[in-house]
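Hi support team,

I'm filing this because I wasn't sure whether my run with flavin-adenine dinucleotide finished correctly. The job status page said complete, but I'd like someone to confirm that the output block is well-formed before I use it downstream. Pasting the exact inputs I used:
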Amino acid sequence: MLEKKHLEYREKTRAFMEEKIKPLAVALDLEQRFPEEHMQPLTEAGYLSMLIPEEYGGKPTDTISYTIAVEEASRVCGSTGIMLAAHNSLGCFPILKFGTEEQRKKYLPRAAKGELVAFGLSEPDAGSDAGGTRTVAHKQDDHWLMNGSKCWITSATKAFATIASSRTSDDPEDREITCFILEKDWPGYAVGKKEDKLGLRGSDTAFLHFDDLKVPLENQLGEIGEGFKQMLITLDGGRISIGAMALGLGQGAYECALKYAAEREQFGKPIAYNQAIQHKLADMATELEAARLMVYEASRMKDAGVPFGHYSAMAKLYASEVGTRVAARAIGVMGAVGYDTGKYPVERIWRDVKLCEIGEGTSEIQRLVIARHLIKSVQKV
Ligand SMILES: Cc1cc2nc3c(=O)[nH]c(=O)nc-3n(C[C@H](O)[C@H](O)[C@H](O)COP(=O)(O)OP(=O)(O)OC[C@H]3O[C@@H](n4cnc5c(N)ncnc54)[C@H](O)[C@@H]3O)c2cc1C
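And here is everything the job wrote out:
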């Protein structure tokens, strides 16, 4: 399924994540602490600059390698997985894809050095309907004046810059949306308190508030009115990494349940000798493998430059639902110790993986994206 170079990459990445990331995963969750200690090793190994060209200080890889990295990070620590995914796919990608040369030179080298970039699309009144953004920017002589807020922003408390969408028309009925690169240090840019979430508790998710925020004209990203399209293009790629997160989390739960089932004895034999347990394990392994094929295929399509948006939505939809199913089954296989926060990671994974059915578009919205594509394809004929 994978070429030799990708198999080798997986081996190297798995060893790195096991050694550098896994040891802190429990503490980050229990203490709701951002993975600060992970930043230096991840930066040095290039995992925070995987989509950034060398000329801007990055260590670029293809999408399959990037997918493997998010998968392997999530296999041991979901909070680190989402931080990697948000920074690379949602933060760095739009600057590279839609930014001017000046913007790339200004922001990407810092991002490659491990300073995080966030993605601000969701708002209190614009979640699934992200085009209903209420944040508004008015053009003044030498800047834009922005007011509004963004919510559920991954790494919001840490990111030095955020790609944010805003309405830019003076007509409140007009859905003209434009994107901007905002900097955390500007007056009028405020970060809310970290959200207290079910899972991914090490990841800093927070509100951003813009109160008469002066945005220099040169920080407009691409053309006026292109913002919503840019966000959707960015999400097409981002959904591959949410699929990769779900795969890694599901894989972590499955491996734990398999090992436990082979060791735990009841009625004088390992519980794995019961057909009921075997069927659960077989389904978990099979569904993960099917999801993996889809997520890797979406990565291949992206690298090949063919349209992949509908396929990444399918891969994200399937992988995230498999991830949540596998995590729940892992608890089922393990009984009370699976439900406990102590020795095994499966209850944490069960809490973490649920996000994959919500972030970057809920499962309902993925089905909507996929169905629109299907209907369009028939109408074309
Ligand atoms: C941990 C975490 C991290 C996040 N990180 C980011 C980030 O970095 N940047 C960012 O911009 N956002 C981020 N988000 C926000 C996320 O993208 C949104 O939560 C998501 O898009 C859903 O929006 P909502 O929560 O407002 O739900 P709503 O839109 O209110 O939806 C509620 C329910 O209604 C359903 N629904 C809505 N519309 C339809 C429809 N047309 N048809 C059928 N069902 C529908 C939804 O599927 C869902 O089940 C994050 C969220 C979380 C929890």
